[in-house]
Amino acid sequence: MTASHCDRPIGLWLNGARGSVATTAIAGLLALRAGLTRSTGCVTDTDLLRDAPLAPWTDIVIGGHDIVDTPLEKRAESLVDSGVVPGPLLEAVRGSLAGVEADLRPGYDARNDTGTQAGAAERLAADIADFRARHDLSRVVVVNVSSTEPPAAYDPAHDELDALEAALREPGRQVLPGSSLAAYAAFQAGCGFVDFTPSTGARLPALERLAQRQGVPFAGSDGKTGETLLRTALAPMFSVRALHVLSWAGINLLGGGDGATLEDPANAKSKLSSKSGVLPAMLGHDVTAPLHIDNVPDLGDHKTAWDHVSFEGFLGVRMSMQLTWSGVDSTLAAPLVLDLARLTAAAHAAGHAGPVRQLGFFFKDPIDSDEHALAEQGRILAEWANSL
Fold first, then answer.
1. What is the DSSP letter of 246?
2. Domain count, the chain
3. What is the model's pTM?
4. What is the pLDDT of residues 262-285, one digit of tens each?
5. Which of 11, 100, 241, 388 is most buried by a 10 A CB count?
6. Do residues 374 and 351 both lie within one domain?
7. What digits encode the pLDDT tens for the residues 314-326?
């Protein structure tokens, strides 16, 4: 990797900083900074991006927002108990967690915040700006890893920035979902934004205009870590071999916070929507693709996905393929969060403003891109990042 654009450190601000993905990313970064672990799973440390101008692990500082106040140390201990974080690693970085804890601030909770959303956004943006100033950071990237939200209802105020900002100043009105308010605050603070969830985030015309005006990049959405990662690698195989896929059914079993969140049909709708467009885009035709997400609490952060693919070959002969993916969700997601912080900071330093479609490699539902095939996404990512 070549040197970063700036000798000063960068900041990673996590929205949902006390959740499983964030806590795993924090523990992992502390271990990487101390030379206690390898960067397995981090795409930015591979030859694919060998010429990208990325900040070293030692130059990344973490802070964040969350609406819960469980100490990071306790969250990390629970992840050790569930097999997500190795116990010896936690013991080695336990003393450093206090430094991160000192940079965590209360997030926005629509249920309890009685002021205007404009006031809430000002507070969130001020927290990020203070973090940047105290640590003398060259730039900060805000990554949303909070719980999945239901799809946002359409509101004309989301199209024009002036109308949106006027609506945000109205007392008692909830104009934006939490993920979008986090994006708005990030842009107001002059920071890049990444939505690792399928929530609305920055995917509103007014917010894109704000990002362009502020000269900051954004990317998303919904990190590609398990079943969809497998599909984006395998589906192109059927197309290139001229095999006709008839159906591709999937069942996802997971527990923990994600399982509980996605048990709510409204929240699950966002996740299912982000996964649904992948197969038709790669296969070139509509395909029967029933998909289920079931909460199995005892699985915790361990996730199992089972796929059944029915396809047709020469002379109309029917065949099938069955696949099982078992993974630890936060362990798969956390290195990608760190990768996205490095890459988005590099994009910001290079003057990129607005959606960064080249980061679609990391997402189920990439912003500003119709490309879903993993290999092609990897080529696009490498060509772009190595030329920054």
1. E
2. 2
3. 0.92
4. 666 666 665 566 566 789 989 989
5. 11
6. yes
7. 999 999 999 999 9
